[in-house]
Design a protein that fits this description.
The chain is mainly beta. Helix content is 5%, strand content 44%. The protein contains one helix and 26 strands. The protein has a four-stranded antiparallel β-sheet with strand order 2-3-4-5, covered by helices on one side. The longest helix has 13 residues. It starts with a helix and ends with a strand. The relative contact order is 0.12.
């Protein structure tokens, strides 16, 4: 949980704008006393107006730079696991048993998907959301008319890259596909090693700066997509990775925040047991 509190701290500092390299990023910490509905943060996105949307174990929160506003979902659905913003500015939230959509102007909430168990939701572009279900389907939902296309594929999770979409199958193999999910091509790592299947298998993947980040219960790793090289990283669970304007990366993990160079070498590390910086450069 501390790592996700740290994630909230750093993302609020970085997401509203990315000015030129060299800008000082002020680090602030927000939790329940400051108006957040729950300190267990599961998901976070920033919309085009600089509003931060935070998914917690107790509903959805809107942060405008000054105060939090809390939105409750229907009973039994307040643990939000994923958030997305579509091209119209609507906020999509997924729980274990549904996908909900908030209109931030009318503050109304509807439920485009409520008939299956949900593993993940992701904005795959071109006006579409992809919903990974527990019954071996990927639902592609048009965000304008809510029409659906069902893709039969046993996926655990997916990550949206710069051009391609990466899908971790239930066979613990990584696949590459397009925004239409027209075909799935198995990704081959250097040396043929499959790190996703080791030590009990991976559950989630993240994309950032040409890498896929993942991990098993005992270790975490990244795959450089250009070369297929598997790189060990010094933590176990990756919550989010952000590329900064100067090319360095910020990784929010279960062991605190890591500042990394483009080769994933740690530059700095901040955790609960270490003094937190007042500024990050």
């Amino acid at each position: 949980m501390h790592a996700r509190k740290a994630l909230l701290t750093i993302i609020i500092s970085l997401l509203p704008a990315f000015p030129a390299a060299g800008y000082d990023y002020l680090v602030e910490h927000f939790s329940c006393p400051e108006g957040l509905s729950d300190s267990n943060v599961m998901a976070m996105e920033c919309d085009g107006n600089g509003i931060i949307w935070v998914g917690t174990h107790n509903g959805l929160n809107r942060y405008d730079g000054h105060r939090f506003r809390h939105y409750s979902l229907p009973a039994g659905h307040n643990i939000i696991r994923y958030l997305c913003i579509d091209g119209e500015g609507m906020v999509w939230a997924s729980t274990s048993w549904g996908v909900f959509r908030l209109n931030p102007w009318s503050e109304t909430i509807d439920s485009p998907v409520s008939d299956c168990q949900i593993s993940q939701i992701a904005n795959v572009g071109d006006g579409n959301m992809a919903v990974v279900t527990a019954d071996d389907r990927i639902l592609v939902i048009n965000t304008r008319n809510l029409s659906r296309k069902s893709i039969n594929f046993p996926a655990k999770t997916l990550a949206v890259g710069d051009r391609d979409i990466y899908v971790l199958g239930k066979d613990d193999e990584l696949y590459v596909t397009d925004a239409e999910f027209s075909r799935f091509v198995k990704f081959e790592t250097a040396g043929g090693r499959n790190p996703f299947a080791e030590n009990g298998g991976s559950k989630e993947i993240r994309y950032a700066a040409g890498y896929i980040f993942s991990g098993t219960p005992n270790n975490a790793f990244a795959i450089e997509l250009r070369t297929g090289n598997v790189i060990r990283v010094p933590w176990v669970m990756t919550w989010k990775v952000i590329e900064r304007p100067d090319g360095t990366l910020i990784a929010a993990t279960n062991q605190g925040l890591y500042i990394l160079d483009r080769a994933l070498n740690p530059i700095s590390h901040y955790s609960q047991s270490e003094p937190s910086p007042g500024f990050l450069r």
